[in-house]
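2024-03-11 09:14:02 INFO worker-7 job=invfold-0412 stage=load source=structure_tokens
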């Protein structure tokens, strides 16, 4: 199932970029990000209540709270920067640079999470990086 959700994520991420580029025209990028965030907030809490998992909040450890909050802050900064970049440049230039996050995530997973880097992973990482540079 993880592959299905990962592929669905990439499809919706692509739609996000295209829809945002059209929607941000004539709109302040910070305001656009806030509107997007409200929609994500409503959808997320809707799913929590739909799946009846709200009681699990009491079981979250302080460490998990801290890292989830930090992750949320990083997401917020990422979205603010992304929308500003989309406002200033074509999506075809912004999106490939944004997707360098794949390379950075793999590097950080190796450094901070001690995940294994296989030759295949390393080669893929290099190819994504080179491909991004070629696209911009």
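2024-03-11 09:14:09 INFO worker-7 stage=emit residues=136
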């Amino acid at each position: 199932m993880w592959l299905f959700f990962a592929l669905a994520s990439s499809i919706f991420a692509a739609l996000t970029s295209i829809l945002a580029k059209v929607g941000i025209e004539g709109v302040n990028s910070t305001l656009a990000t806030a509107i997007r965030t409200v929609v994500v907030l409503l959808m997320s809490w809707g799913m929590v209540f739909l799946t009846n998992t709200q009681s699990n909040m009491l079981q979250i450890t302080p460490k998990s709270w801290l890292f989830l909050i930090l992750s949320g802050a990083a997401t917020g900064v990422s979205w603010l920067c992304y929308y500003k970049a989309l406002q200033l440049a074509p999506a075809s230039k912004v999106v490939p640079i944004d997707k360098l996050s794949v390379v950075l995530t793999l590097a950080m997973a190796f450094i901070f999470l001690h995940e294994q880097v296989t030759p295949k992973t390393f080669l893929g990482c290099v190819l994504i990086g080179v491909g991004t540079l070629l696209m911009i």
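2024-03-11 09:14:09 INFO worker-7 stage=report msg="The chain has one domain: 2-98."
2024-03-11 09:14:10 INFO worker-7 job finished
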